[in-house]
Amino acid sequence: MQKKIWFRMFIRVAAIFAGFVALLAAVNGGFLGKYYIWREKNALVDMAGSIRQLELKDAAATLQALERLNAGRNFLIDIYDQDGKMLYTTYGQQIWDFSDFPVFAAGIRRRPLQTLEQERREDGSWFITAMDESNNAEYIIYQSRTDQNDYIEIRVQKSLLEKSAGIANEFILILAGVFLAGALVWIVLFSKSFTRPIVEMNAITRDMAGLQFQRKLVPASKDEIGQLACSINDLSTKLDATLTDLREKNEKLQDEIDAERRLDSMRRGFVSNVSHELKTPISIIQGYAEGLKLGVSGDKDKREAYCDVILEESVRMNRLVLDLLELSRYESGQIKIEPQDFDMAGLARGLCQKLERRVEEKKVTLALELPPCLSVHADPARMEQVLHNYLSNALSHVPEGGRVRLTGESRDGLARVSVYNTGAGISADDMPQIWQSFYRGDPSHKREEGRFGLGLSIVRAIMELHSRECGVYNTDDGVCFWFTADLAAEEDGGQTGANLV
């Protein structure tokens, strides 16, 4: 299981605190007693120095001075003359007029003491560790001389010092334990508080690794951690912007690649279709021309028929080339539209009059259901071409005796013109392909009508130039093609169509 960073920090800091407590306990246990003794020895030396400054003439004054010097101490002070006679003592705060010690020697006492250790100092004074055999109490004794060559003996009970040191050591350990317990609680809170920004940074950077840049850090301080949080926020923002820009460029590049692939596919298909469309008339022209050259027939009428076929195929090829050039100009943007206000209904009526012969030949009914005036803002020549292609397409697919209907209406600032013809509908597979060049929906691909499958491609190109839409849908008994155009300013009222026959 993964350890939390705050827990790892808690363990390390707690170990440091515990180590300090253990070190404190070891130092106290090993050195506190020795420190107490060293300190008391220095105090004994200082006390002897203070006593040397006393005149030691007046007994009462001397005792008061000794009592003053010994205030707050637990020393026993004895002063002897050169013969070993005790002159002053703080034991019972009284003067001794006799002494059992005829000479000064290390370890002399009022009662027998067993000397354990002796240490002679450079100034001739002594430190003596001795035991009172009556109660097994150890003493530290300091012996030195006064300026009058009297003897000073100051002693303190060593066992009391060791006991005091033990009590102090025990108290320090208890206090350290309490402080350690409080420190552990503080360390937990501190570890969580200190590592919280780091945990948040980890979560944010993990999100960044997953390309998610919504979350941001809130810097809680102005130190290095706060600066790091600001840097992560800046990095997140810049990465988000950079990746967004890169993603958009990649999408655009992908779109361009896809478009280039489609264009390349269309180019290959276009070349193939053009080759296919030109192959037949070229073959016909070649065959009939060779026949004329070889004089296969002496009949004048037959020669004229050959020439008519050659002329008809030449016209067909010329029309194909012109349509291809026109479509190419539309798709390459070479043709610029010149929009102006004109009456779409009037244009439609005039175009229908031009197609009356074809209507009569197919014995179909052509109905115009347009408003008396449908004024639009567009290029009239291009709109006439769109309508002509729609009507030609309808007349090519309507069965003999069928119906063709041209309708128009205005709505929401746009004019919508539709061309409907009875007959077979367009299959779902063919629907998206009918706007492609050289596509013809009839399975027979008849050539006698002179259709090359470029009309709807030209319609689509013209509508793209106008930034308007075109489309097709099946009805119950036929097919309906439609397109939209901008209404002229005075017609932008949304009136719907009235019937014209």
Notable characteristics:
501 residues; 6-stranded antiparallel β-sheet; 52% helix; disordered C terminus; alpha+beta
Compose a concise summary of this entry.
The chain has 501 residues and is α+β, with helices and mostly antiparallel strands.
Q: Can you walk me through this structure?
A:
- By secondary structure, this protein is α+β, with helices and mostly antiparallel strands.
- Helices cover 52% and strands 17% of the residues.
- The chain contains nine helices and 13 strands.
- It has helices at residues 5-52, 59-69, 158-209, 224-294, 300-332, 344-354, 356-362, 380-397, 455-465, and strands at 76-80, 86-89, 113-120, 126-132, 137-145, 151-157, 340-343, 365-369, 375-378, 403-411, 414-422, 470-474, 478-487.
- Strands 7, 8, 9, 10, 11, 12 and 13 form a seven-stranded mixed sheet that branches.
- Helix 4 (224-294) runs antiparallel to helix 5, helix 5 (300-332) runs parallel beside helix 9 (455-465) and helix 8 runs antiparallel to helix 9 (455-465).
Any chance you could write out the topology, listing elements then pairs?
Elements: H1 5-52, H2 59-69, E1 76-80, E2 86-89, E3 113-120, E4 126-132, E5 137-145, E6 151-157, H3 158-209, H4 224-294, H5 300-332, E7 340-343, H6 344-354, H7 356-362, E8 365-369, E9 375-378, H8 380-397, E10 403-411, E11 414-422, H9 455-465, E12 470-474, E13 478-487
